[in-house]
Amino acid sequence: MIVGYIAYALLGANGFINTALKEAALDPFPFYTKPDPWRLILIVANLWGGVGFGTIIYLAGMIGINPEFYEAAQLDGANKFQQIVSITLPLISYLIVIQILLAVGRIFFANFGLFYFVPQVWRNGALLPVVDVIDTFVFRALQGGSFQAGAGVVKLGMAAAAGFYQSVVGLILIVSANLIVRKISAEHSLF
Amino acid sequence: MQLTETKKASFLSSYRVQKRAAETLIHGLMILIAGGMILPFILVISASLTPNQDLMVKGYKIIPDRPSNEAYAYLFKSPASLIRGYGVTLIVSLTGTTLGMLMMSMTGYGLSRIIGRTRRALTLYVLFPVLFSGGLIPFYLVMTQMYHLNDSLLALIFPYLVSPFNVLLLRSYFNQLPQEILESAKIDGASEARIFFQIAIPLSTPALATIGLFTLLGYWNDFWLAMLFIRDTKLYPLQYLLFQILNNAQAFEKSPMVQGISPPTHSLRMAMAVVAAGPTIFVSLFLGRYFVRGITLGALK
Questions:
Q1: Is the dihedral of CA A115, A117, A121, A122 positive or negative?
Q2: Contacts of A185 (CB under 8 A, 6+ apart)
Q3: I need a labelling partner for A45 at 20 to 30 A (CA). Which of A15, A75, B90, B109 fits?
Q4: Is the CB of B59 less than 8 angstroms away from the CB of A138?
């Protein structure tokens, strides 16, 4: 929600970026009507919102590492980089694997808030071709297809099927990813 | 091979210079990234302190030319809908968290106490919704057609009561508790419920605090359920109210709270964002260490 406000403050017609552009005597850029930049904007916004939480998870894993490992490595003459590669990474690998597995399982799901509020889809239909994901598609169907998606109004049955499909593919993906992980290193697998 | 003293010294000093340079570089880079991360927040705060006129004419700036508290003054002059939103969010978050914690810890405890094949089956039963679900439309139909929860605070509470992931975290925490204590309480004649409330719960406060915090933040930041189930403006939680304001400033101008006077819409929006997000940021700052500690305790195995 807040990310949407922030994006608006940055990208809006009077937003920070356009103000800066004006001051540099350049033409302002209408972000909310041009779909192309949104491919990048959404990635940046997602990173901005998600990096903190990811950092905390890995930080938690790293705090749990016994400092004696590092001391022993230092005595043996390992530099920082070697310590990272041969102590830190292996010891947080279980976290990395869990994160990847869960992310793979959710590859067909999107962060609804990100794709709906940040581009403000409900009034910037021009952006739909780039920012419409299954989640927003289904939601629009639920709203009664209040705005069009290409060919026509989204039908409820079709949306239900899309949502179900999303779940099935997610399940298949996570189970197969888990199988692969189990083949490579059984102790890292999720189940 | 032996280094002479001078060689050693020069080696050390060049090493130090290198290290200093590397550190400066890394710190500089990190400061840049951190600055970039925090810049958008600052922008919203400063926009909320800029006079509306300036926002429309000159646009958003990091440092307002003439700071003003216009938006906040306006917000707190007739804060009816804001207070209402806060109230709804508070009620939902607090009941939801309390009930949810009770249910999740009981489920987790139960799972940790059962042994044998039933345990595997029940764990799978809890985990399954994480892996697979019917999707949004069936969920919506169940909530509205079976339980008739449109326009009800219960619709904002129920769906988030039990998070399977948290149940499993709690289960693995309960598993780590020294079983001898639980056993000896049992021998002394304590019932399972008493063991749970008087022994297992007090021993698990760190885990409970973390998960409680997660649940609370989940409720606080939710707009999704309100978007699906709430049409009655009186029941809008804070986040959804924010959305409505972002969505259309006209509705806001027409609302009874602001009739007659033209509001400083642009800066007002940003002020609303600050007022709504403030508590979460505050809570996260002070309870951040619980996040870190809490995640370590659940290796989920």
A1: positive
A2: none
A3: B90
A4: no
The partner residue sitting opposite A164, judged by closest CB among B56, B135, B243, is: B135
Look at A33 and B27; give whichever has higher pLDDT: B27
Question: Is the CA virtual torsion B58, B64, B70, B75 positive or negative?
Answer: positive
Residue among A56, A105, A166 whose CB faces B135 most closely:
A166
Please check the confidence at residue A164 and state whether its pLDDT lies above 60: yes
A56 chain-B contacts, CB cut-off 8 A: 288, 291-292, 295
Give just the sign of the alpha carbon dihedral A52, A54, A56, A58: negative
Q: How many CB atoms lie within 10 A of CB B12?
A: 11
Tell me what pLDDT residue B244 has: 77
Task: Tell me what ipTM this predicted complex has.
Answer: 0.74
* In chain A, % of residues over pLDDT 90: 9
Task: Residue A122: list chain B partners with CB under 8 A.
Answer: 247
CATH number given to A32-188: 1.10.3720.10
A133, A115 Cβ separation under 8 angstroms: yes
**Rounded to a whole number, what is the distance in Å from the CA of B185 to chain A's nearest CA?**
32
Distance CA B71, CA B266 (A): 9
Indicate the average pLDDT of chain B. Answer: 81
Chain A (45-104) residues lying within 8 Å, Cβ to Cβ, of chain B = 48, 51-52, 56-57, 59-61, 63-64, 94, 98
Domain annotation for chain B: domains and CATH numbers: 5-69 (no CATH), 73-297 (1.10.3720.10)
To the nearest whole Å, the CA of B273 is away from the closest chain A CA by 6
Residue position matching structure tokens 């022993």: A72
**Tens of pLDDT along A35-93?**
888 888 888 888 887 887 788 778 878 887 888 999 999 999 888 889 999 999 988 88
